[in-house]
Amino acid sequence: MIGAPLSKLGNRSPHEKSARATPPPDNKTPATGSSRTPLQDSYGIITPSGLHFERHHSGVPDIDPANHELLIHGLVEQPLVYKLEDLKRFPSVSRIHFVECSGNGRSEYSGNLGADPATSHGLASCSEWTGVPVKLLLAEAKVKPEAKWVIAEGGDACRLTRSIPIAKLLDDALIVYGQNGEPIRPEQGYPMRLLLPGWEGNTNTKWLRRLNVADGPAMTAHETAYYTDLLPDGKARQFSFELEAKSVITRPAGGQKMPGGAGAYEITGLAWSGRGKIQRVEISVDDGKNWKDAELQQAGFTKAFTRFRMPWTWDGGTVSLQSRATDETGYMQPTGDQMLAARGRNYSYHNNQIKVWYVRADGSVSHVAQGV
Amino acid sequence: MCVPMGACRMLRKAFSIGVLFSVAAFGQQARIGKPAGEDKIKAMDITVFPDGRGLPAGSGTAAKGKDIFKEKCAVCHNDQAQGREGQYPALVGGKGTINTPKPVKTVGSYWPYATTVFDYIRRAMPYDQPGTLQADEIYSLVGFILNLNGIVGESDVLDKDTLPKVKMPNHEGFIPDARPDVKAKR
Predict the structure, then answer these.
(1) Are B14 and B69 contained in the same domain?
(2) What is the pLDDT of residues B119-171, one digit of tens each?
(3) CB pair distance less than 8 Å for B36 and A343
(4) How far apart are CA A327 and CA A333, in angstroms?
(5) Prediction ipTM score
(6) Of A76, A262, A341, B22, which one has the greatest count of Cβ atoms within 10 A?
(7) Quick one: B85 and B48 in the same domain?
C-alpha cells in the first residue's frame, strides 16, 4: 500500500502518545505553573523541544521578533539595543546543556514522593542551544569597572526579573535563539533567552528584554519572596544558583510495568550536574547496600544530561533500584535522610536526593516500598 | 605566484591572525548593537533597587490604598489581603511562623525589603493587567499592605525617600548560599 505523501512539517507517529505532565485542569491561574518532561519516555540525552518542561509565572507571551528589542544599559559606557537579527551577526556557539527548575523534586522534602520520573524529576530537560556569548554584548557596551551584578528582565506579563553576578555572564552565559536546530520555542523564551549553564531555571530569563548592569542585586520578588531556601532556624539561603549533581533511573521506573518476567533487562537513566561533567553513576539493586558503576554513554558534555546504562538480570522478585551520581568536583548525591538532616522540610528548592524505585513481583514498578 | 615562499607564509599567517583577531575583538571593532537613547531606557527601565534607586515621583498612604486594593487586588488576594486558600498568596500574617514546621511566607513575615513590594506590584500586578497602575496608586497599595502587617501607619506617606527607609521585620532573615552542605560518603 502506498504511504502518506510528502509534507512541509513532519510529526511523530500517531502511535506515540508521550506528553508533558500538566497540572489538574481546575487550576485557576493556568498561565502560572509548570508542566513536566516525561523523562521516562526519552532516549539519549536530548529532550524534544515540544516536551521541554515549562515553568511560567504569567504565561507565554506572543512576541513578534520584528518588535522585540534587548536593551543593555546601566553601568556601561554605551547603552545598546539588539534585535534578533543583530544577535545572529555575532559568532554563534552551540552547546548541549540541561535546564532545571530549582523546584524540581520539591515534594520529596515533604515525603510526598514523585510517582514516576516526570513527577519526580521532570522539571529538567536538555537541549542543544545556539546563541551568542553574553560577554560579547557586554564588551560592545563597555562595562564600567564598578559593575558587579546584572539585572535580567523577561518580556512576559510579569516581567520576571533576577539579579545575576556579572562573573557568570562573563563566563559561560549565552543569549540563545536556537534550540535543537530550530528557533527556540515560545515556551522556552522565543525569540531570545538567557542561558546560564548549570544555574537554576528561573535565572535563565526567557523572552529576554533587558540587561541592567548594576553595582548590586535588585532584590526582586523572585530572589527574596521566592527561590530562597528556608532552613529550620528561620534563616533562608539566597542566590543559590548552582544545581547539584542528580540522577534518576528512567527505566524501569515508577508507573511502569515490567514488559516480561524474570530475565535480562537494561537499567537506564539520566544524570546531570550544574557544577560540571558527570564523572560516575552507580546503581544499587539491594536497598543501597552494594553499588556498581553504570556505563556512561556520553561523559563529554559539561552541565548536560548524561545517559547511563547497566545490564541487569531480574530474578522476578521484589527489588529496589536506585542510582547516585558523582560529578567532576567529587560531589556525590546524598540520600533523602542526609538531605533532610541538613536542611529540614521547608527548604523547598534544590532537592537532589537519591531516587528509589521498587520493582514488585507482579511486574509493577512503584515509588513506594511494598507494604508501606 | 607567491614568491618568495617566506613572504607567502607570512601573508597567510597575517591573514589567519587577522581573522582570529576580529573574532576575539568583537565589541571593540565591529559594534553590532545600536545606541540606546535616554527615552528608550526611561521607557523600559522599571527596576527598583533596595536603596530606592528607580523609584518614581509620587506618593501614597495606606488610607488611600484601601479602596484601590478593594477594586484592583481583592478579587484574588481577598479583602484584607489574607489570600484565598490554595490559589492566591496571603500578603499579611505569618509573623513568628518562619522558623516553625509550617512557615507562612508573606510580605510581612518574609519579604526583606519594602522596595521589592513596589517593584513587584509595578511590574507584575494586577495579574491580568500588569503595568496599568500609576505611581501614586502603587505607593498607596504598598502602604495598605505594609499597614495591614503593622509595619507603617495608616497615614504615613510613602514616596521615593521614605519607602527605602522602611525596615521590614525579616530584613535579617537571609544568608548566602552555603552549598555543598550535604556530604555523602561512599
Answers:
(1) no
(2) 999 999 999 999 999 999 999 999 999 999 999 999 999 999 999 999 999 99
(3) no
(4) 9
(5) 0.96
(6) A76
(7) yes
